[in-house]
Amino acid sequence: MTRSRDLSLPQEHSAAWVFQTWASFLLSTSAVTIGIVFLPVDGWMKGYMGVGFTFSIASTMSLSKTVRDIDDNKRLTARVDGARVEKLLSDHHPLK
Known about the structure:
The chain is built from two helices and no strands.
């Protein structure tokens, strides 16, 4: 039985992709932080923007973890279902 996509193998990320992901995250958070620090407003407004920015980062991380967990669960369910089908087919093979 051949599948178009093997669900049992995790996808590998290249070192360049991991570097680009971290570099873009650090650059964007640094740019926004510098922008908030040098914004010509009162300190309480900078604090409010900083808390909002921190909340945005935390909620983005939670969302990405949730999406990853849902995908992992689908892969595991597909592997278990595939194993059940293989066992059922091997147990009831007409030529045995």
